[in-house]
Amino acid sequence: MSNSTSPALFANTILVSRDAGQAPTLQTIGVMGQARKKRPHNKSRRGCIACKRRRVKCDERVPCSSCVKRNISCLPPFHQHVVAPSLSIPSAHFQMDMDPQISLLHLELFHHWDKETRSTLTFPQIWPVVMQRAFNEDFIMSAILCVAAMHLTTLCPQSTKYSHAR
């Protein structure tokens, strides 16, 4: 195992082909005992989906220069865990009701959302974050319950129980 405090040493030996009729030779590139020089670079952590798919560095602009050059749509990555910066800031417009009226219908709708509706929606990686936020933001919980009620109304059109929940 190499010591992490010592500089990396390198020498690469490659097979170089010659003209027709001559045997290939081994050529060493680099010098043994010489410290390896690495070029400085900046990592791209929040690159667009197209750049990640192509495994190239993204300049993280919207749209990025790579997507503009290729004339393709530049989509932000899915893995960002920020739903919206404004959701984490307490606001006078969206105060949490400290005495909510929770019924068995609400619990049934939330259960249906979690077990059935959520899996039918796109962007599965965002829903766990949205569900966590729903316990702190009334409007998110209301939206979840409404979507679950609409889903149940579609699945059970004969029942009027869920159509009133919309």
Automatic annotation (TrEMBL):
Gene Ontology molecular function: any one: DNA-binding transcription activator activity, RNA polymerase II-specific
Record organism: Trichoderma semiorbis
UniProt keyword list: Nucleus
Superkingdom of this protein's organism: Eukaryota
Protein name per its UniProtKB record: Zn(2)-C6 fungal-type domain-containing protein
UniProt domain Zn(2)-C6 fungal-type: residue ranges: 47-74
Alphabetized InterPro entries for the sequence: Sterol_Uptake_Regulator, Zn2-C6_fun-type_DNA-bd_sf, Zn2Cys6_DnaBD
Gene3D superfamilies xref list: Zn(2)-C6 fungal-type DNA-binding domain
PANTHER family: STEROL UPTAKE CONTROL PROTEIN 2
